[in-house]
């Protein structure tokens, strides 16, 4: 699946806020998580001609990571971005190839030729885009900003023998063991829930290297930190980079992260 493409191309009238609204809508309406990476050339000085053209006409894109089906994503985008304001592309190495509404949308929207590369990655241009991520994490409270990569459903405590909801697909199941796999055959996500609210809603610190590389104190899985507070995607542990190196461009999300954890702790009583 190395060449799997799933993206929106945005008309110039679509704002960053509208992309955030799309993330909020997906969070409220769906049970599966989605990550939207909003890519813009606004502050960039692209050297290659194809990218300069995209910047000139203000063509931006949103890369999508999601298990949601194309028509679900398109319907949500119709509502959040406006029906004529985007092209949706999904393509895999096998037979899937969706282009909604169609490739002519590019010319009709931007009034130029030469942007077809945006649909299918004709050029390797990833490095030149500036990007920002929005997380549609079902189960997160409405007060939680979609820029915060903490998935609250990963933190719902459950002891062995108690029902647990899979944080990825929402399937509820019971296991005798602390670590178990989701019973949904399309999902099979395996994890070990925290046993108490106190354990779950606590932020632990970890050492992070100069390159932003660190590992989870709970399950040892390593990851790259792009923000001061991040969540382990394997076990759900919320981790703060203890010795954040300021030469690495890391987003300071500590205030939002700590206030979310406080809110959850209060709810848990
Ligand atoms: Zn699942
Ligand atoms: Zn972990």
Short overview:
The protein has 269 residues and is of the alpha+beta class.
Strand order of the largest sheet: 5-4-1-3-2-6
Largest sheet: 6 strands, antiparallel
Q: On the 0-100 scale, what is the average pLDDT?
A: 91
Structural class: alpha+beta
Let me know the number of strands.
Answer: 15
In which range does the helix fraction lie?
Answer: 10-25%
The helix count comes to 7
Q: Which geometry do the CA atoms define?
A: globular
Radius of gyration, rounded? 20 Å
Q: Which ligands appear in the coordinates? A: zinc ion
User: How many domains in all?
Assistant: 3
Low-pLDDT segments: none
First-last Cα distance = 44 Å
- Secondary-structure element order, N to C: EHEHEHEEHHEEEEEHEEEEEH
Strand content: 15-25%
Protein topology:
Layout: E1 5-10, H1 16-29, E2 34-40, H2 49-56, E3 60-66, H3 70-81, E4 86-91, E5 97-100, H4 104-110, H5 117-120, E6 130-136, E7 163-165, E8 172-174, E9 180-181, E10 190-191, H6 197-200, E11 203-206, E12 213-215, E13 222-224, E14 229-231, E15 238-241, H7 254-268
The chain binds zinc ion (2 copies).
